[in-house]
Design brief:
By secondary structure, the protein is of the alpha/beta class. The protein folds into 2 domains: 4-9 and 399-509, Arylsulfatase, C-terminal domain; 21-388, Alkaline Phosphatase, subunit A. It has helices at 4-7, 11-18, 58-65, 80-89, 93-96, 112-118, 148-159, 181-184, 200-214, 270-300, 332-335, 362-369, 384-388, 462-479, 492-499, 509-512, and strands at residues 33-40, 68-74, 124-127, 144-147, 221-229, 307-313, 339-342, 351-358, 399-403, 408-412, 416-421, 441-446. The strands form 2 sheets. Strands 4-3-5-1-6-7-2-8 form an 8-stranded mixed β-sheet. A hairpin with a 4-residue loop joins β9 (399-403) and β10 (408-412). It is globular.
Length: 518
């Protein structure tokens, strides 16, 4: 039995401090603008500037060349709602109170929009925010909240009925987990039944452009949030032949992967996998086109020099790695996301940061750069040093991420990746395996010798498992709102399992046609 004193010793104290340090606001005489461009499911490795020669992302590449790129940026949860509300509040998901897909952020939670509103901005958003509640003025601090429900309604009314494209095959209605994965993951690389001008995301660009034009004389804080490249990887009719599926190799599946591949993906052929990957890359190209359209509007209105631009995604995405086509897991492809920032004259141009950064670092960075008041509770650390001088006084030595739907979390360092999973929860996300309740499962990957995360070496390195598990527990103890209720007399693994339970979990039986208690 490990004592509480041992668990809080040496390295753990310093790590906990990284999540608790107060931040100081950076005052400016004139308020700059903020343009926050957000993507859904855009994996960090599918971007040309990251060295991916197959990815077509010229606008993102240009943004990176004009600003600073964070090459090893990681989300704090590989699923939409917990990740988004975490970097909206600067709190880890278990502290923000949103740890599962259908969770709802409490109205009284501090948010980035509220902090900016208190500093004189009038925050606005067009697009997907995954609040799981209807958009309305004042929602979580947005004076204008044209979220996905309003966008979809107004877009449909504006563009009218779906045109007839004759012999061109188009995507069917998206029915995940009802149709075979080959259909809802678009293995035939079928376009959405609209032209570029008629696409929903193009409509979002138009609304954002109108907003910029109307507010160009006053400091603005504008979120533009796209659905792409989330499945079914939408792209317009004219983009359907942009990529040849045969050009994409199918990622290797490791010797220990067979049992952990979700059942829903088991029947996919290599040809279908290639089609899925090509559809995703096509959707990324469409996304990049719209990112460029927003940046072009900023330039036409002569707002570039006065605007801090950020581009990021909520989390990454697996495209066949370990046999998976989704996030919902702690492998690197699902965790690493793009992060680009540009503000001419204030942020280094063409710079690349190779230190670890986390999505919860973004809110304190933006508040400092914009001269707004910091959060009173803040789990991130400002990246302003990287933006201004290329250095940080306290670079991260590891990253932390959690996926509580499966009661798992991970710690990643340069050398090691530890994934702790209780194996006690019947997951409700649709990605069940042969053994849905395997019990305690601990994976340790030696990333220096096994960058693909194929071989579990936990039994060969018990001291590394012990140290990283202690770091993980210290993070929970420093940040979890129920840490004072931690049960006494438990082992370290039992305590981690206790913290990994999703407190906001709900029963979503209807979604996947089965019902299990949370």
């Amino acid at each position: 039995m490990i004592t509480r004193r041992q668990l809080l010793g040496t390295a753990t104290g310093a790590l906990a401090g990284a999540y608790l340090r107060p931040r100081v606001a950076y005052a400016r005489d004139r308020k700059p603008n903020l343009l926050y461009i957000l993507a859904d499911d855009h994996a960090g490795y599918v971007m040309g500037v990251q060295g991916n020669t197959r990815a077509y992302t010229p606008n993102m590449n240009r943004l990176a060349s004009e600003g600073t790129r964070f090459a090893r940026h990681y989300c704090n949860s590989p699923v939409c709602t917990p990740s988004r509300q975490s970097f909206f509040t600067s709190q880890l998901p278990h502290s923000a109170g949103v740890t599962v897909l259908d969770g709802v952020l409490a109205e009284d939670k501090p948010t980035l929009a509220k902090q900016l509103g208190a500093s004189g901005y009038q925050p606005a958003v067009f697009g997907k925010m995954h609040f799981n509640t209807a958009g309305r003025p004042g929602l979580h601090g947005f004076d204008l909240a044209e979220t996905e429900d309003i966008v979809s309604r107004d877009w449909a009314a504006a563009v009218g009925p779906t045109p007839d494209f004759g012999d061109i095959r188009v995507k069917p209605k998206w029915r995940p987990f009802q149709d075979p994965a080959s259909i809802w993951l678009d293995s035939d690389k079928l376009p959405f039944p609209r032209t570029y001008e008629q696409m929903e995301s193009t409509w979002v660009v138009q609304q954002a452009t109108n907003y910029l034009r109307e507010h160009k004389d006053d400091p603005f804080a504008l979120w533009v949030s796209f659905r792409e490249p989330h499945s079914p990887y939408n792209f317009p009719i004219e983009d359907r032949n942009d990529f040849n599926a045969a050009d994409f190799p199918v990622p290797e599946v490791g010797p220990e992967d067979a049992g952990q591949i979700p059942l829903v993906f088991r029947g996919l052929t290599d040809k279908q996998k290639q089609g899925i990957i090509a559809a995703y890359y096509t959707s990324v190209r469409f996304l990049d086109r719209n990112v460029g359209a927003v940046l072009d509007a900023l330039r036409r209105l002569n707002l570039e020099n006065d605007t801090l631009v950020i581009y990021m995604a909520d989390h990454g995405y697996s495209l066949g790695q370990h046999g998976r086509f989704e996030k919902h897991v702690c492998y690197d492809p699902a965790l690493q996301v793009p992060l680009l920032m540009r503000w001419p004259g204030h942020i280094r141009s063409g710079a690349v940061v190779q230190d670890f950064t986390e999505s919860i670092d973004v809110p304190p960075t933006l508040l400092e750069m914009l001269g707004a008041e910091p959060f009173s509770l803040n789990h991130g650390q400002s990246l302003s040093g990287y933006l201004k001088t290329g250095r940080s006084t306290n670079p991260r030595q590891s990253i932390f991420s959690e996926y509580l739907e499966n009661e798992e979390a991970c710690i990643r360092t340069d050398r090691w990746k530890l994934i702790h999973c209780s194996g006690k929860r019947f997951r409700l996300d649709g990605y069940m395996t042969d053994d849905p309740l395997p019990g305690l499962t601990i994976h340790l990957f030696d990333l220096k010798n096994d960058p693909g995360e194929f071989l579990n070496v936990a039994s060969q390195h018990p001291e590394v498992v012990q140290n990283l598990s202690m770091q993980m527990l210290s993070i929970f103890r420093a940040t979890h709102p129920q840490a004072a209720e931690e049960p006494a007399g438990k082992s370290m693994n039992d305590l981690l399992d206790w913290y990994l339970r999703p407190r906001d979990a709900k029963v979503h039986c209807m979604k996947f046609n089965f019902c299990q208690p949370s």
